[in-house]
What does this fold into?
Amino acid sequence: MLNIILFGPPGAGKGTQAEFLVERFNLLHLSTGDLLRSQIEAQTPLGIEAKKFIDRGELVSDELVIGMIEGKLKKCKTQKGFIFDGFPRTVAQAEALDKLMVRCGKKISGFLALEVGNAVLIERLLERGKTSGRSDDADVSIIENRIEVYNVKTAPVMNYYKAQNKFFGIDGVGSIAEIAERLANVVSAF
Ligand code: AMP
It folds into this structure.
């Protein structure tokens, strides 16, 4: 049973690549960004709260995000493997995920970190902003804040998985197909 974390800074290509891995390895996709955006669309209290942070390029609280993932893992014992995309984004979230996986009788198979430099990230996000309808993709200062938040709060998550020998760095620059192949090669060996 594969349970994969797809990690990387904003604009690294996590969403795009998660779709390939879902197909190829028959996984269930859990993207906290997508889940939060559906809550915003449905104008739930959770969505209204989360939007304040998302619009500024800040992280939503650990409590809120962990609660959301916990809900999605309710029937985890009988579900197929998972691909976590955009989660965990803090060390506290990584610790909470480990506990939730224990409760499911599962463990994280591997942590795949897409590596992309800042200039390419900003270029990709601005390009995506033209069509994504995401306000957090449309403004350079918000994008820069997301990258700063990533460096300060999210990048330390890498050390958490390095300490567990689950870390795999993947070059995230190239064609979508090339990057998908790099990821698949690593996952096939899990
Ligand atoms: P994403 O679609 O993964 O780029 O996420 C969009 C935004 O949703 C982020 O900039 C955060 O504001 C929020 N978000 C998504 N996932 C998380 C998470 N695991 N923890 C905190 N905030 C999150």
